């Protein structure tokens, strides 16, 4: 399968598009209580080796991005790993950092990782990956399980992604075409990335034989979405790249106008906030995910360890960056369970040589040894995803089959 057509039409858009994807993944305010108790590490565990230190960073206490629960998940995962004997007898130590949605603070987090001689950065969430990864690269520190929201995360040899990243945008375009959408709107905030996201969606539309999307830009200060809804009602379908809160506003206003538009949400943006607040207006909305929905029994252990995260403003366990951090820690522990060299170089060497990445059933196995054959997306290793949709007011998996995201990158035969 060739990726030439995708490269020409879409890869130039990746860097700008990922900022808006980050805004869609985690929006809203964070009213969580810093004093909440987390899981307790057992004092009965005896470790046989020196501690291994890792870092997880996230964003909170800002006006736009607040994902403190990511750090709660990391802390819970570390305690759980240690309560099961640690990493090959080594206690896992966690350092957390808030990048504050500020490139300078983000760089400080990365420099702290270097100063603390961490073995790896694991999971986490940031829109400043392009600032942080070069610092990690220089020190040889791998980032295991980044969210894939920056060009560096998608391309750096120190990045080990577990998800399909922006490949899902092309697949959503192909899905819309396959659902019979003759006219498609690409709806997002009026940022440079709005047009770029539509280009990625258009790859899937074009390869499925459909017309390109029409970009509808939302002024960033918008609180009344009636005028945006008025624009979307003229289209069969709309690919929405906004935070969940804005999507609910658009869908509710469109429903009041009698709209029949089908909605497709960018990966990471369709959370339980939408189902809890959108009602009939969001019924049938479709997205893609690398992981099963939050009510799947596979998440039961995570919920027992960390809690149900019911009060999290970003949708708790239904949020992709939350899920990704838990899966990253569980997979990190599995892949390194027989490792002896826990230096950053040793960890990276182990990961580079891993040809069967076992995520414990959260994803099919895949390989870190073979990069994706397209510049700018070369660190996408897991091509398989599932459709998630709103059905009966809940997020449910659509069917049992996984979709290969590479299929949307080549013209249909």
TrEMBL record:
Residues 67-369 form the Leucine-binding protein domain. Keywords: Amino-acid transport, Signal, Transport. The keyword Methyltransferase does not apply. It comes from the Bacteria. Residues 1-27 form the signal peptide. One of its GO terms (biological process) is amino acid transport. Belongs to the leucine-binding protein family. This is ABC-type branched-subunit amino acid transport system substrate-binding protein. It comes from Nocardioides ginsengisegetis.
């Amino acid at each position: 399968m060739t990726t030439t057509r995708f490269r020409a039409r879409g890869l130039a858009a990746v860097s700008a598009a990922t900022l808006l994807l980050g805004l869609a993944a985690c929006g809203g305010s964070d009213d969580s209580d810093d004093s909440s108790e987390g899981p307790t590490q057992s004092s009965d565990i005896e470790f046989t080796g020196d501690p291994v230190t890792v870092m997880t960073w996230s964003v909170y206490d800002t006006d736009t991005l607040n994902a403190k629960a990511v750090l709660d998940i990391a802390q819970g995962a570390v305690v759980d790993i240690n309560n099961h004997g640690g990493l090959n007898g080594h206690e896992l130590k966690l350092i957390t950092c808030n990048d504050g949605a500020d490139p300078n603070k983000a760089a400080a987090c990365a420099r702290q990782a270097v100063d603390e001689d961490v073995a790896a950065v694991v999971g986490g969430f940031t829109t400043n990956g392009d600032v942080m990864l070069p610092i990690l690269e220089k020190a040889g520190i791998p980032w295991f399980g980044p969210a894939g929201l920056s060009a560096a995360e998608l391309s750096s040899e120190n990045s080990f992604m577990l998800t399909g990243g922006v490949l899902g945008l092309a697949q959503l375009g192909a899905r819309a075409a396959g659902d019979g959408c003759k006219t498609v709107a690409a709806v997002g905030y009026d940022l440079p990335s709005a047009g770029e996201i539509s280009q990625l969606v258009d790859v899937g539309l074009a390869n499925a034989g459909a017309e390109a999307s029409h970009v509808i830009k939302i002024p960033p200060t918008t609180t009344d979405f009636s005028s945006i809804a008025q624009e979307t009602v003229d289209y069969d379908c709309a690919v929405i790249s906004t935070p969940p809160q804005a999507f609910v506003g658009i869908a509710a206003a469109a429903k009041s106008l009698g709209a029949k538009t089908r909605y497709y949400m960018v990966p990471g943006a369709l959370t339980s906030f939408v189902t809890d607040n959108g009602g009939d207006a969001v019924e049938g909305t479709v997205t893609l995910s690398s992981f099963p929905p939050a009510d799947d029994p596979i998440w039961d252990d995570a919920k027992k360890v960390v809690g149900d995260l019911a009060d999290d403003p970003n949708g708790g366990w239904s949020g992709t960056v939350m899920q990704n951090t838990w899966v990253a820690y569980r997979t990190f522990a599995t892949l390194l369970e027989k490792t002896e060299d826990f230096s950053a170089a040793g960890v990276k060497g182990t990961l580079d040589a891993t040809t069967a990445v076992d995520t414990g059933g959260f994803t099919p196995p895949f390989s870190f040894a073979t990069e994706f054959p397209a510049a700018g997306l070369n660190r996408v290793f897991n091509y398989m995803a599932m459709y998630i949709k709103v059905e009966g007011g809940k997020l449910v998996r659509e069917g049992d089959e996984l979709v290969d995201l590479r299929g949307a990158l080549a013209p249909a035969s």
